[in-house]
Each structure stands twice: as C-alpha cells, then as structure tokens.
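Support request from a user on the community tier.

User writes: "When I paste my structure tokens into the form, the page sometimes reloads and wipes my input. The last time it worked, I copied everything first. Here is what I submitted, just in case something in the input itself triggers the reload:"
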C-alpha cells in the first residue's frame, strides 16, 4: 500500500475477469437498473407532468455510488451525500416509494413535502444512516467530519468498543472541492486523523463551469497528493473492476485506523446538471465521449459471461422496471400533507425525533428547580457561566466544549479558563480557524448523540458559519422530526469599553430569524446560569449570547443560584414595577433602563430570551401602563424591537395612550472611539429623555 498522501491511479485489488467476490454484483446490477428506471420515469413522465419539480439525474454516477453504499456495513458508520446521491441512498435501503414520493413532495418520505426530493435523509435503523443533506454545495463536509470525530470520542473516551472500525463517508462533486466546507473538513479530518472518507465524483463540470475553474488542472486528487495525513486514491468510476478495487481499498484504509482518505473517481454526467439544463455549454464531441463511458453497458459486459447470462441480466432490468412502476403507483396515491401541519416540528414539541441529540441516546436530565437558591457572595457573569459549564461537564460525559482559543488560554474573555486542564483535550479543545468548521462539526457531533457546545469568538465572526447555522436550525422541520441536532452555541456580543465593526456587533435578530434556534440574552449572572443550564439539558439548538460588557459588570453580579437551577425560555423578568410606562429591553441595556426609570413608576421588563419571547408579560404590562418604550443596542431598522413594536401595535392598540417608541443604535456599525460609541449606544440620559417624552404625550 502506498504511503499516505500518495495518489494511486487505477489501482485496486480486483483486475481479473472474475468479478470481485466481496461485492454482491447481482445486487449492484439490480440497484443500478432501479436508479436508471427512476431517472427515466422522472424525465419522461413525472417532470413533464409537473409531478416532480426538481430532478437531478444520477446517470453516469450511479454504479460507483451503489458500490460505495455496499461497503458501509458497520452499524456505526455514517454518511452524507448531496443532490446527486440517490443511487447511494438506494444502496443503503431507502424504499423506492419513499424516494419517488419525496421527489413528488407528497406526505411522508424524507420531509412530508417540506423539502425538495433530492435533499435526502434516512435514519436507517438497520445500518448506516444518511445524515440530512443540504441544498448548499459543500455543506455536507463539515457535519460528516463531526460524525467522524464522534466515532473516535465514543471509542476512545467513552470506551464504546462498538465504534471500533466505524467510518464516516461524505460524497461530493468536483465543484464542491472549491467550497469552504470542503477545505475546513479536510483540515479537521487530517489534523485529527479522523476515520473519514472523502468520496469525490469528478464529472468535469459544476453546472456549466469546467472543473479547471474549481482546482488547478481539474484534478483534486493530484493537487492533494502531498497533503499531510491524507491517503489519496484516484481512478475511473465507470470501470467496474477498477472502481470496486479503489472503493474497497479506500474503505479498508480508513477502517484500519490510519486516518482519512480521499477517493476521486472520474465519472460522466450523462444528463444536464438538472432536468432544465440543456448542456449547451458542452460540445457535441464531448457529450458523445461521455456516453461512450456510460458505466451501465460496462457493468453488463463485466458480469454477463462471468457471473450471469444475458437472460438473467434482462430479467434483472425487467424486475427493476416493474418495481419502479409499482413504487410510482403507490407514491402517486399518497396525499399532500395537510397545510395546517406545516408549522409543526420547528422546535421539539414532545414527540422525540428519530435520530440525533443526546436525548435519543438515553440522556436524562438531572432533577432541577426553577426556584433560585442564592448561595455565597455575588459572582460575575463570567464566573457564573464557567461554573455552569464546569458542573454540566462533570455530570454529562456526552458534552464537548470547543472553539478558537477555548483551551489553555481559556477563551479570549476567560470564560473557559481551566476547563481543558480539568477535563482533557478530548472534551475541551481548540479548533482550526474556521467558523464553518466549528458549527458544521458541531452538527455532526450532535447527530451522533453528543452534546456539542461550540463557541464563536465574537458575534461578527459568525458570518462564515451562517449556512451551517441555518441548516442546523431547519433540520427538525425539513426532515419532519426525523433528525435534529441540538447544541448550545455560545457567542460573545456587544461593546466593551470601546467598540468597533468587527468585535462589538449584536444583531441578535439575525438568529431569531433563523427558524429552529432558541435565543438567550442574559443580563446578569443568575439568569446566565439558569438559561445556560436549561439550554445544555434541552433538545433544541440554542444561541447563547454573552454580552462582553456584562461579563464583569458590577450590576450583573449575583449570588450563585444553586447547582440545579434552570430558567425556562420565554419567561421575562420585571426588574422594576410601575404603572405609567412599560420599558422592554435585554442584555446590556437592562441596567441602563433601570437607572433611567429611577424615581418613576415604570415596568422595566428584561426579556431574557428573544426566541421565544414573553409576549404575554409585555402585553399585560402595556394594557396597564398604556405606554411602551423598547430599548436595544442593535440597529434600529429591522431590529428585534420592531417585532415587539408591531405586536404591541397589533394586539394592544386600543390600550395605548402614546405611540410605541424605540430607542436603539443608529443604522451604523459599532464605532471604535469611546466618545463615538457613547453617542451611538442608548445612554441612561437618552433613555430618560425618551421616557419623559412619552409620559408627556
């Protein structure tokens, strides 16, 4: 076997005329004929009849994909494909009726009609699951790296021998090798020597763009030949013996524990990128050369005479056609899911998802109380968060804490100081500098039943991870509660002594606007403990904002509320009560609003969470005070205060004696100079002035 990093072109253990006995060739022939029949049915009838709206043919990719699927026979294997991976899904056991019913957007199937049918998921209780695919190119790589890391964690840290020999496999096209996700996952897998197989199908085009635009020379295997800790193989995915040998060798290498491998197989894309794609950008000669490489006649030539006769081959093809026709009839009998159910399963609603999250692996939260029991001296918010993380790490061996600089440094804000020393680098660890990789890895870890607690170092740095954040939040909904990936995403936000456009952003509303995420914005140490512990023991993904100015703020200090204190989401708190005006706020603006209301009869409401938010408390207060002021640090246009104002205007209009008012930052990034920052952020004086204005209305 070649050394890691050495590409092996056209090499495998089966090169003789006798088909490799390690493969079930009749099953491969059957599945390939089924895949062709599915493509043919969609292209000739279901798409023209508009019963299938998105169709991506796998013709040309199909044979090698089926072979790959038959190699994933370990009960702890995991795999994630992309929109051209249906033959692979068929080899894992997806029912034909589900495949067609999902393509038609009918009830049941992958998503109950919520997602396009080529974005697959498959819990597969009998074997390797197909992790939820995403519509974004390259988004499959980092979650698969997370699954691979989970394999090593279960095996090496939790001592579960059932994970020995398990691997994670990710499928992607040649164009996806240009994405952030690919390079981030490659870094994670190679630096950690994870059991991960990168399976790259090179059809020389990304829609209309040649592969030479994606990687120099159009050959990712050749370009990665010297990449550290990576075993690289390359060959022809249309030659049955060659493809079988390479796939076996790649899978065996990764199962052997030597680290990750990348297998690039050259395959033709025998139809357009999608049904609507005419391929006018290809020359007639190039299209003809692709059809000359069609793997189906090559498979027939390889098997007929060596393993079966012509009649058996024809019988398999006929049986495949019959099976697809029967599945089509059954799928067309399915109804469309009732529209009144389309809002269900955004969050956990009491019915357990089939796959993903620690709750599906037997986790039971310790006893808790919603009543704080203050103990000892007041502590700052930073200490409160660290102590909560420490306590939950102690109680829950499934919990992992990670991000940039969270290890020996203890985080740039010192919140995780000492935790790696106490729990080890397997549980508290630094990551490569890739926010896509941090969150994507967390998704894979969560799908494998662990509790990831990733940190994004500053709110502004979350932008490269937004695709993974969105995909994670929508997972429960778009799989109709088949999959979920609960995690707690910690993120420092806001100003601290000074500001700037890169470290001081809040923009909480962006995460409220990502369906499926709960959002916490504690203003003090006690609330931080209760909300964080609630999130760590919950069954939904949570964004936990830690305001930089409040981490060591004297006002935010509180006694430790107890080792079992939890604070349910959606319960606001009144920090001051009165009857002349309602002031709604959160985060660093809470103490400012409290100070501004000094000497007045005012309800000052700290929302504590924005998703969900306590509409009932706000509306009841407004009905009594008849005035409402909303104060937040985020920008005015499109800020979360606009949502609150709209709800108050819509549901409490007749109770109001004055217009609903907002006081926010102007629509600018956070200024750096403290003088400019103090002008931009709502101050106690400006808040008081706005209160007086409303009281005089």
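"...and here is what came back when it finally went through:"
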């Amino acid at each position: 076997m070649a050394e890691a990093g050495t590409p092996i072109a056209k090499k495998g253990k089966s090169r003789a005329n006798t088909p490799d006995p390690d493969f079930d060739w009749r099953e491969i022939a059957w599945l390939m004929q089924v895949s062709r029949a599915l493509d043919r049915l969609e292209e000739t009838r279901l798409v023209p009849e508009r019963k299938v709206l998105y169709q991506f043919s796998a013709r040309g990719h199909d044979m090698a994909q089926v072979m790959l699927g038959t190699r994933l026979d370990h009960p702890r294997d995991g795999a994630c494909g992309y929109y051209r991976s249906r033959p692979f899904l068929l080899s894992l056991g997806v029912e034909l009726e589900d495949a067609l019913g999902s393509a038609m957007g009918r009830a049941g199937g992958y998503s109950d009609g919520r997602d396009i049918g080529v974005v697959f998921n498959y819990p597969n209780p009998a074997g390797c699951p197909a992790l939820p695919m995403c519509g974004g190119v390259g988004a499959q790589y980092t979650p698969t790296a997370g699954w691979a890391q989970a394999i090593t964690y279960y095996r090496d840290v939790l001592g579960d021998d059932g994970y020995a020999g398990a691997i994670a496999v990710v499928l992607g096209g040649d164009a996806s090798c240009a994405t952030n996700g690919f390079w981030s996952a490659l870094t994670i897998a190679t630096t950690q020597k994870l059991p991960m197989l990168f399976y790259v199908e090179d059809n020389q085009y990304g829609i209309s763009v040649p592969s030479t635009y994606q990687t120099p020379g159009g050959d990712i295997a050749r370009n990665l030949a010297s990449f550290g800790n990576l075993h690289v193989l390359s060959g022809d995915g249309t030659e049955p013996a060659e493809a079988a040998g390479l796939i076996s060798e790649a899978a065996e290498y990764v199962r052997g524990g030597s680290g990750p491998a990348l297998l690039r197989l050259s395959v033709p894309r025998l139809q357009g990128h999608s049904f609507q794609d005419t391929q006018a950008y290809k020359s007639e000669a190039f299209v003809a050369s692709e059809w000359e490489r069609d793997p189906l006649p090559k498979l027939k030539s390889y098997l007929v005479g060596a393993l079966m006769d012509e009649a058996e081959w024809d019988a398999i093809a006929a049986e495949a056609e019959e099976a697809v026709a029967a599945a089509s009839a059954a799928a067309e009998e399915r109804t469309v899911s009732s529209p009144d159910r389309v809002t269900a399963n955004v969050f956990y609603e009491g019915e357990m998802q089939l796959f993903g999250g620690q709750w599906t692996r037997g986790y039971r939260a310790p006893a808790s109380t919603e009543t704080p029991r203050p103990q000892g001296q007041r502590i700052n918010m930073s200490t409160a968060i660290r102590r909560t993380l420490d306590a939950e790490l102690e109680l829950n061996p499934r919990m992992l804490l990670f991000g940039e600089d969270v290890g020996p440094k203890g985080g740039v804000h010192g919140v995780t100081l000492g935790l790696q020393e106490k729990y080890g680098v397997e549980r508290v660890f630094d990551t490569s500098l890739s926010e896509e990789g941090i969150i994507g890895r967390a998704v894979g870890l969560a799908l494998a039943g662990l509790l990831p607690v990733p940190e994004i170092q500053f709110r502004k740095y979350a932008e490269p991870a937004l695709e993974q954040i969105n995909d994670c939040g929508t997972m429960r909904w778009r799989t109709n509660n088949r999959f979920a990936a609960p995690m707690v995403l910690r993120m420092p936000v806001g100003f601290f002594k000074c500001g700037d456009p890169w470290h001081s952003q809040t923009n909480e509303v962006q995460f409220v606007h990502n369906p499926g995420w709960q959002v916490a914005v504690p203003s003090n140490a006690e609330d931080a403990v209760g909300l964080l512990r609630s999130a760590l023991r919950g069954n939904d993904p949570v964004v936990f904002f830690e305001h930089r100015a409040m981490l060591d703020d004297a006002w935010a200090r509180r006694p430790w509320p107890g080792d079992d204190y939890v604070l349910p989401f959606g319960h606001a708190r009144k920090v001051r009560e009165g009857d002349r005006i309602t002031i709604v706020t959160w985060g660093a603006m809470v103490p400012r609003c409290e100070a501004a209301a000094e000497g007045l009869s005012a309800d000052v409401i700290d929302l504590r969470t924005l998703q969900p938010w306590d509409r009932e408390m706000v509306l009841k207060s407004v009905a009594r005070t008849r005035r409402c002021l909303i104060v937040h640090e985020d920008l005015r246009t499109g800020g979360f205060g606009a949502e609150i104002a709209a709800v108050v205007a819509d549901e409490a209009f007749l109770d109001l004696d004055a217009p609903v008012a907002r006081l926010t930052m102007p629509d600018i990034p956070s200024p750096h100079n403290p003088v400019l920052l103090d002008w931009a952020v709502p101050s106690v004086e400006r808040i008081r002035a706005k209160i007086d204005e409303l009281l005089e209305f």
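Agent notes: The reload is a front-end session timeout and is unrelated to the input. Residues 310-333 form the longest helix (24 residues). The domain at 358-560 is CATH 3.40.50.970 (Rossmann fold). Escalated to web team.
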